[in-house]
Amino acid sequence: MNICVFLSAADLDERYTVPAREFAELIGRGGHTLVWGGSEAGLMKVVADGVQDSGGRLVGVSVEFLHMKARKNADEMVIAADLAERKAQLLLRADAIVVMVGGTGTLDEATEILELKKHGLHAKPVVLLNSAGFYDGLKQQMRRMDAEGFLPVPLDDLVHFAETGEEAMAYLMENAAV
């Protein structure tokens, strides 16, 4: 399975790096491929190292203005012209999507993926990995959107919130059409 992971390229505390590394090792040991932003920095590096060290493949999709930060030993590296093309390439190459902790770029990626799914433009499973309760506020907001009729599809059909990497992987294995 090709698993797209959206996440931060920042150096982060171990409450975020440990669960990210554990999920990365599940990807690698399962013989899966990580499809990610291609960066050799921060949490992106932690996840890529974990996948590669555990036997998985790496497919990076960097962007022209960040190409100098792209991982040199990825199995495949695509350089997109801009962020919109990058997101499209990441989705195209993925069988499933996992959103880990991140800033505004990660939030942008997550909301675009969910918006496309809401409109039926993809049917890939989407998981928000809620490490250290990072997405508790977003989960609360999305439940409110669902309860008050802002979502045309049930929230559970749109996204799954996982508290652990094991839960995230189990959901993907059960729901990805590979």
Strand order of the largest sheet: 4-3-2-1-5-6-7
Q: Please state roughly what percent of the residues sit in beta strands, choosing from under 5%, 5-15%, 15-25%, 25-35%, 35-45% or over 45%.
A: 15-25%
Largest sheet: 7 strands, parallel
Q: pLDDT below 50 for ≥5 consecutive residues: which ranges?
A: none
Class computed from helices, strands and strand pairing: alpha/beta
| Mean pLDDT reading | 95
How much is the radius of gyration in Å?
15 Å
The beta-strand count equals 7
* Backbone shape: globular
Q: In sequence order, what are the helices and strands, one letter per element?
A: EHEHEEHEHEHHEH
Terminus-to-terminus distance: 6 Å
Contiguous helical run count? 7
Question: Would you kindly provide a written description of the structure presented here, covering whatever features stand out?
Answer:
- The chain is α/β, with parallel strands linked by helices and 178 residues long.
- It is built from seven helices and seven strands.
- It has helices spanning 14-29, 42-53, 83-92, 104-118, 136-147, 155-158, 165-175, and strands spanning 2-6, 33-36, 57-63, 76-80, 96-99, 126-129, 160-162.
- The protein has a seven-stranded parallel beta sheet, with helices on both faces.
- Helix 4 (104-118) links the parallel strand 5 (96-99) and strand 6.
- Helix 1 (14-29) packs parallel to helix 2 (42-53) and helix 1 runs parallel beside helix 7 (165-175).
- The protein is globular and about 45 Å long.
